[in-house]
Design goal:
Number of strands of chain A: 8
Distance between the termini of chain A: 66 Å
Number of helices of chain A: 14
Shape of chain B: globular
Distance between the termini of chain B: 28 Å
CATH architecture of chain B: Alpha-Beta Complex
Structural class of chain A: alpha/beta
Shape of chain A: globular
Number of domains of chain A: 2
CATH superfamily of chain B: 2-enoyl-CoA Hydratase, Chain A, domain 1
Structural class of chain B: alpha/beta
Helix content of chain A: 40-55%
CATH class of the largest domain in chain A: Alpha Beta
Largest sheet of chain A: 7 strands, mixed
Strand order of the largest sheet of chain B: 3-7-8-9-10-11-12
CATH superfamily of the largest domain in chain A: 2-enoyl-CoA Hydratase, Chain A, domain 1
CATH class of chain B: Alpha Beta
Strand order of the largest sheet of chain A: 1-2-3-4-5-6-7
Bound molecules: zinc ion
Oligomer: heterodimer
CATH topology of the largest domain in chain A: 2-enoyl-CoA Hydratase, Chain A, domain 1
Chain lengths: ~325, ~290
């Protein structure tokens, strides 16, 4: 049996499951008193499984969103979309594998797709920089945004990044410039834009392709201004307080629906999307398709205006007398 | 009031003498001094005022607060602030180490401002503009709902009244205490810049020390012309975050204005004494493009 990746909060459950497996390997005919114990442990596991995966904290969900087996952008491209044609390069510097760009069809809708792309293993993750784009990644995204705009293709984006890469070359090539330009461009596209949070929504690097006319999030995806670890180390000088800070930051799909930032939440199988990916792919296909249907045929001026109003209304202020 | 008189008046109110007494009157008293953080030499207040808070020994640009920036750029008595009372609240009930409400309160007390950016109508070299300046003293001029809202309104008002926009930025980035509400201000402000651009109204930004994170990666750099003050730290990720990520020390001058110029990210590094003239000339070109000079 291959070693399973264990998230912090499911450790007690996994340990109990291991104990049960051990018990089941014994020859119980010789130990009739153990039969009862096996049954008890099995019951305990059922109860613990239920309580472990019900009522997840924000920090638990962050761990699920980062689970190595969680379906990635390329899995969605393969399972949710058909006739996929991947497009490469920013035409200026290179092809950033941390961003995937494609023309694809979802439930009969021809669209352009952009996603952050993480790897499934170390080799892939190194090539894709763990889904953390450099400026050329955002510039590739912008090229596809312009293409979509030019040919009237709706845009579907899949958000899954720890953030834009913080590195020397990224700064040299204008990381901030690339993100800012992408934000401005995306806000003015004259085609429908449906953004889907499938995993991590890390700050500006997520936002660069991460908003539109609809924002759909998977139940255990997060979207945040800063990672809970970084926030904890800045405010508490202690990254260990990440769990506490994750709750404060209101970064879960449910929190964000409450703030009016997220429109729809797609529920995940118990334990996370990696447990039953097919179920999640089906739900994403259906929700993206119905969002596209609802937005189809909208007047481009109206689309841009209402997207602007959406953004414009975000924020909580008080108007003092100054 | 001339710029240097204006500075004198403010400095006199702000600075204490070496023997600890508060300066009185409009004259800068003798004996008030600061140490230049770059060359470590002593600079007398009178000199600093005369040199627009630039070190006379080494040229280091001392940080300015929002009203000092505005005093530097706006034509005398032309500045008319709007939305001065717009402030952030605490929508998430955020508490980490201390409550966000406490940070807001003490920032207001210390700076005399309601939020980290000051915006208003003004003329610069005779051009009608919306002029804004960020104030790092206010929670690092981080962008939460209120900073985002004031920037958005600044661009919308410029669009309505056909004005150019001139912004002096300085910010630690997004205001994490407002969570996603603050991240979304990046998209909101960038969208307002795009609208101004579509109306072909000029936007000039002046990047000052320090401009980082979500402010750099939104409205600060999508201007028609991007200027920077000498020696300003400007970037996306903070130097410490980068060092921790790549496990190496950063080269000297990394993320400085001069570094950005070298890498094609800003149009010009302009010393403070030449800034107003430079912005005026740029507005002459961009706002009166079709007219004979
Ligand atoms: Zn000096």
């Amino acid at each position: 049996m291959t070693r399973r990746y264990v998230m912090e909060f499911e450790r007690p459950l996994v340990e109990l499951e291991a104990k049960l497996e051990e018990l089941q390997r014994l020859d119980l005919t010789a130990n009739p008193e153990l039969v009862a114990e096996v049954a008890t442990v099995a019951e305990e596991i059922e109860a613990l499984r239920e309580s472990t995966y019900a009522d997840l904290s924000a920090w638990d969900r962050v761990q699920i969103s980062r689970h190595p087996d969680r379906p990635k952008a390329q899995d969605y491209l393969a399972a949710v979309f058909t006739d996929v044609v991947e497009l490469h390069g920013d035409r200026a510097y290179g092809d950033d594998e941390a961003i995937v760009a494609a023309l694809a069809t979802v439930d009969g809708h021809r669209v352009a797709v952009l996603g952050h792309r993480k790897g499934k293993n170390t080799r892939e993750n190194i090539a894709r920089n763990f889904g953390m784009p450099h400026p050329e990644g955002f510039r590739k995204a912008m090229r596809i945004m312009r293409l979509a705009n030019k040919f009237g293709l709706p845009l579907v984006t899949l958000i899954d990044t720890p953030g834009a890469f913080p590195g020397i070359e990224a700064e040299e090539r204008g990381q901030a410039w690339a993100i800012a330009e992408s934000l401005a461009l995306l806000s003015g596209l004259r085609v429908p834009v449906v953004a889907v949070g499938i995993g991590e929504g890390g700050s500006g690097g997520a936002l660069a392709i991460g908003f539109g006319d609809r924002l759909i999030m998977l139940e255990n995806a997060y979207y945040s201004v800063i990672s809970p670890e970084a926030c904890a180390s800045i405010l508490h000088k202690d990254a260990g307080k990440a769990s506490e800070v994750a709750t404060c930051l209101a970064m879960t799909a449910a929190d964000l629906a409450g703030l009016g930032i997220v429109d729809e939440i797609i529920s995940e199988p118990s334990g996370g999307a990696h447990r039953q990916p097919e179920e999640v792919f089906g739900a994403v296909r259906e929700r993206v398709s119905s969002a596209l249907t609802a937005l189809a045929g909208a007047d481009p001026n109206e689309l841009v205006r209402s997207r602007y109003e959406r953004l414009r209304s975000i924020g909580v202020i008080e108007e003092g007398s100054g | 009031m001339s710029i240097s008189d204006w500075f004198k008046a403010r400095e006199a109110r702000r600075y204490t003498t070496i023997n600890g007494e508060r300066a009185a009157g409009s004259e800068v008293p003798d004996g008030v001094w600061s140490t230049c953080s770059a060359c470590k030499r002593i600079v007398y207040e009178g000199q600093l005022v005369e040199y627009l808070r630039v070190c006379p020994h080494c040229g280091h640009h001392f940080d300015l607060n929002a009203f000092e920036r505005i005093g530097l750029l706006a034509d005398p008595e032309s500045f008319d602030e709007f939305d001065a009372g717009v402030g952030s609240t605490d929508p998430l009930g955020f508490v980490a180490a201390k409550p966000y409400t406490e940070s807001l309160e003490s920032a207001r007390e210390r700076s005399g401002l309601t939020e980290g950016v000051v915006v208003g109508r003004a003329t610069v070299g005779g051009h009608p503009v919306v002029l804004g300046a960020m104030d790092f003293r206010f929670i690092g001029a981080s962008m939460g709902s209120a900073v985002g809202e004031k920037i958005a309104r600044a661009f919308e008002l410029a669009l309505d009244e056909r004005r150019a926009v001139v912004l002096c930025t300085a910010s630690g980035g997004a205001r994490m205490q407002e969570g996603m509400l603050s991240l979304m201000q990046m998209a909101k402000t960038s969208a307002t810049v795009r609208r101004l651009a579509e109306a072909r109204l000029p936007y000039i930004s002046v990047l000052t020390n320090p401009t980082m994170g979500g402010v750099t990666a939104s409205f600060a750099v999508v201007a028609d012309v991007v200027l920077a003050e000498p020696g300003a730290l400007v970037g996306f990720a903070g130097p410490r975050v980068i060092e921790q990520t790549i496990k190496q020390h950063l080269p000297k001058g990394f993320q400085s204005s001069e570094f950005l110029l070298e890498h094609g990210m800003v149009d010009e590094v302009v010393p403070r004494g030449q800034l107003t003239a430079r912005v005026t000339t740029l507005l002459d070109y961009l706002a009166r493009g079709g007219e004979r000079a």
